[in-house]
Amino acid sequence: MTDEFRCSPGDWVEVEYVLLEPAERAAGLPEDTAAQPLRAWVKGFARAAGMIGDAIEVETMSGRVVGGHLSAISPGYTHTFGTPPTELAAIGRELRARIAEYRADAMDGEFVPSHVPGVAGPEAGE
Q1: CA 29 to CA 84: how far, in whole Å?
Q2: Is the dihedral of CA 6, 67, 13, 65 positive or negative?
Q3: Rg (Cα) of the chain, in Å, rounded?
Q4: Residues near 6 by Cβ (< 8 Å), separated by ≥ 6?
Q5: How far is it, in rounded angstroms, from Cα 105 to Cα 116?
Q6: Which of 30, 48, 91, 99 has the highest count of CB atoms within 10 angstroms of its CB?
Q7: What is the mean predicted confidence (pLDDT) over 25-33?
C-alpha cells in the first residue's frame, strides 16, 4: 500500500541521513554551521515498506544501497538556490548598461581599450 506517508518495496522515495555529526565537521566553519550535522538526501527505490520517518534502505539509480530515514515518497527534482540577494538581483542589468556605456565611449574615441571585441586596440607606440 503506497500513500502519502507509506511506501511499498520498489517505490521511488527519498531518505535523509547524517553524513557528519557536529563534532566530526571541519574546523574553520562558521559557528552556526559547525553546530549542525551535515545531512544528505538520496533518492532511490525503497527496498522495504516503511512510513515517513522510518529507517529504510533505498537502491539508487546507479545500484548503490543507502540507508536513512524515509523523508519523501515520489519525490520530484526541485532545485533551488534560494531567493536572490537583493544586491545581486539587478546586477546583470546594471553591468550590461555599464558595458554598453563603456563600449559607446570607446567607439566615440574617448579611449580605445584593447580587450573590447569589435573595437580596434591602440597602435604600437600610442
Answers
A1: 23
A2: negative
A3: 27
A4: 49, 50, 51, 52, 73
A5: 12
A6: 48
A7: 94
Rounded distance, CA 20 to CA 25, Å?
A: 6
Specify which residues 7 forms β-bridges with: 50
Q: How many CA atoms lie within 13 A of 103 on its CB side?
A: 11
pLDDT given at position 54: 97
Residue carrying the nine cell digits 538581483: 89
C-alpha cell at 9: 518495496
Q: Which residue, among 56, 77, 79, has the nearest Cα to 9 in the 3D structure?
A: 56
pLDDT digits (tens, 9 = 90+) for 94-120: 999 999 998 888 888 766 556 656 655
At 50-72, the pLDDT tens digits run 999 999 999 999 999 999 999 99
* pTM exceeds 0.70, yes or no: no
Q: What would the grid cell of residue 65 be? A: 544501497
